[in-house]
Amino acid sequence: MCPPRFFTVDYAINPWMDPERPVDTDRAMAQWTALRDLYLSLGHTVDVVEPQPGLPDMVFAANSATVLDGRVLGARFRARQRAAEAEHFRRWFVENGYRDVTMPRRINEAEGDFAWTGSLLLAGTGFRTDREAHAEAQETLGAAVVSLRLVDPRYYHLDTALFVLTEATETVPASVVYYPDAFSAGSRRVLERLFPGAVLAEEADAACFGCNGVSDGRNVVLPVEATGLAERLAAEGYVPHFVDISELRKAGGGPKCCTMEIRK
User: Fold this and answer.
1) Cα of 126 vs its chain's centroid, Å
2) Is 110 left (phi over 0), alpha (psi -120 to 50) or beta?
3) pLDDT of residue 140
4) Active-site annotation holds for 211
5) Dmax over Cα atoms in the chain, in whole Å?
6) Is pLDDT above 90 for 264?
7) For the chain, which domains are there?
8) Calpha distance 255→128 (Å, rounded)
9) What's the whole-number mean pLDDT along residues 204-219?
């Protein structure tokens, strides 16, 4: 994670961003701190990358690397305003002992568009990550990739429209949450085939970034407004935990955007 010490909205690179709308950096910091503290209370380890002046979106750490079995595939951002973030995160991995670090040649916004299911890497395209970056991720990470096309600009990253509830094991298939209308017709059919028991998010869930959740297989972190989705997940045996991400959402981010999951 990366604290939003320099958080602001000075430019618009997604439909959620409006530079004319006031932003409260202190409130963003408080919301981020509450999210970090929730992870710690649930027994997780949180590594912190230092934010840099002039890079207000560094808080969205999920966009900066994909880590699987200790292999790190860095990011290459589409928007010039975020381009410098990639090097700061690359340096963090090198300085913290990661030796297998690859920087992509194609546009690749990391866990913003890559979701590991335990057996497959779901890969989004349509707005940010290049379709060709999916093959690059497969070669670098050694994971079979399934490409999914996003069609609604409000859900410009895969992680705004889908998250993994439980990773697959040898005996149990993966489970996911997703918002069908964010995907092309063909991608919806792929998701239906892969995850027939998926929890389908409704429009209200997606609009508050409910599909930008984070799950450890039991505990699910959701925006406080995602009450309908929380009820359905509780009925499936999961334990929802709410966080306020209203300030961070002004830049198009939620719990998952703030969270890079490191799989060693």
Assistant:
1) 16
2) left
3) 98
4) no
5) 51
6) no
7) 25-251 (3.75.10.10)
8) 19
9) 98
Report in angstroms the alpha-carbon separations of 257 from 98, 183, 225, 232. Answer: 22, 19, 17, 22
**Rg (the chain; Cα; Å):** 17
95 — alpha (psi -120 to 50), left (phi > 0) or beta? alpha
Q: For 81-235, where are the alpha helices, taking DSSP H only?
A: 85-95, 132-141, 185-194, 203-207, 227-235
Q: Could you report the per-residue pLDDT of 68-109, keeping only the tens digit for each? A: 999 999 999 999 999 999 999 999 999 999 999 999 999 999
Candidates 2, 208, 211, 257; catalytic one: 257
Say if residues 32 and 252 touch (Cβ distance below 8 Å).
Answer: no
User: Is residue 33's pLDDT more than 90?
Assistant: yes
Q: How far is CA 235 from the centre of its chain?
A: 24
Q: 103 phi and psi, to 5 degrees?
A: -100, 135
| Catalytic pick among 157, 208, 241, 258 | 157
Q: For a pLDDT cut of 70, what percent of the chain falls above it?
A: 100
